[in-house]
Amino acid sequence: MSDYEWFSLINSGKNQLQKVIDTNRYTDRFGISLSEQDAKQLLEARMDRLRQEERIEFREGILPKLIFAFCDSPYIDQRNYKDTLEALQAMFYMYKNESLDELSDDELIEFMKTEFEGECQGSLEYLENTSLERFCRWIRSGRPSGDEDNEDQNEEEYGDGFEREEEWF
Amino acid sequence: MGTDSKEKRNGFNGEKLISIVADLADKYTSKESTSVSYDTARQLMGAVMYCIREAVQAADEAMDSEEQQTGRLEGMLNAGTDYEIRAVYEKGSQLVLQKVMEAKALYERIITDFCSYHNQAYEDTLIKGMPAFFINYDIKFQPQNHLLTLDYPTIGGIGALTGIDAVFRYLQNIRLEQIFLVQFPDEYVTEVLSHYHEDYHELFLNISALVMRSCVGHLLAGKPALSFGLEEYEYQRIDERLSKLRRSGREAISQAILNLIMSICKENQALAAYLAMDVRDFTWELENAAKNHCLHKIFPF
């Protein structure tokens, strides 16, 4: 059995489906829920994404945490709920790698939620290709602090977003 | 998915190790991450296997072949319960820690009167490299990685050993070398080395092998082991002795060298066994040098 097959076996995970469906008990109050089919599709997407990003989850996946973090977002409703979760899940795994695992799950989810509802104004594309990309580049370069000499350049390149990141971290 | 053949990995049921690796991953991430990269997972799996192997090897110290030990390891992993396998892993972890303590104690014995004879690789590996190893060696999450390149070459090397096993074996070899070399005045050793190559300070060469070969050369010439230099007629004498031995085959030369090593080592079996690992290469080089009339290349001093 190759490493790939072994890791896939681990990622197949047990009881994931029920845990995802159980989140409906909380999300119902926001008018959104997942059908069993939606949950299965999300979990299949999870497997694919984990394989693509070469990551492995030994225990409970990140999906329930993402659900609890984003279910109260004004940019999410029943029509786009499943697709948004799928996109957020994919982004999460990708940017765990892009941040060289220097961010905890909570830190990354918090950033994603704040940006999604702030600068991104509900745009998943902006979240993925701008906010997260910029943030992880900053992480990879060692989280440098703002440089007064380059303040103009920084402002031009990053705009308010750069300074805002500094405030949080 | 679910048949035995699909759940087996590397000849044993890897699924039994998943919970141990999962626990290790929790500690690795301080439970701040639900996922790790494949590389990290491989590393942690390697850590678990390393500790389990330590325990299995320690449990049976008889002269089993590597194949037999691997077979026993697989058998244990297939037949053992999760609890039993976890217990073996914990035991192995303890053994790794114990070995690190022993290695540290051995290093401290070596370093008190260590002499590098101005060889840079020897000095860098033992004076700079080893302390860094003991600071940075990751017993829990990466015991299989011995971090150092171990540039100074010991006779026979460390083979396929990894982690603390590799370092411990290396230090044992260094200890034997230092025991051997301390018998000779420093000037003698440096003369042997500089006659071998004027830039010996910068080369990756084994000092004890060169000194041992020098001693063997003097003995073959009918001189005391600790002699300074060889005259032309003494090279002749060595050539004659080797010619006689060659008539009985290469084995005869090897045996003659072994006997001389035993006499040099003065009943220190471990030291003799260590130096004897050079005999095969030494025999080939000696034979070749005798055939091509360049014994002074093998015995420059």
3D architecture notes:
- The complex is a heterodimer of chains A (169) and B (301).
- Chain A contains ten helices and one strand; from the N terminus they run H-H-H-H-E-H-H-H-H-H-H.
- Chain A has helices at 3-12, 16-22, 24-27, 36-53, 63-70, 81-98, 105-117, 124-140, 151-158, 160-168; one strand at residues 55-57.
- In chain A, helix 4 (36-53) packs parallel to helix 6 (81-98).
- Chain B is an all-alpha fold.
- Chain B contains 14 helices and three strands.
- Chain B has helices spanning 4-7, 15-28, 38-59, 66-79, 82-112, 120-136, 163-181, 186-196, 207-220, 232-247, 250-265, 269-276, 279-291, 295-298; strands spanning 8-9, 12-13, 35-37.
- Chain B has a two-stranded antiparallel sheet.
- In chain B, helix 5 (82-112) packs across helix 6.
- Chain B is elongated and about 75 Å long.
- The termini of chain B are far apart.
- Residues 1-11 of chain B have low confidence and may be disordered.
- The A-B interface holds A 1, 3, 5-7, 9-10, 12, 50, 54-62, 65, 93, 96-97, 101, 104-106 and B 1, 6-10, 14-15, 18, 21-22, 25-26, 29, 32-42.
N to C succession of SSEs of chain B: HEEHEHHHHHHHHHHHH
* Mean residue pLDDT of chain A: 86
Instruction: Classify the beta-strand content of chain B into a percent band.
Output: under 5%
End-to-end separation of chain A in angstroms reads: 43 Å
Broad shape of chain A: flat
Structural class of chain B: mainly alpha
The number of helices of chain A is: 10
* Helix-residue proportion of chain A: 55-70%
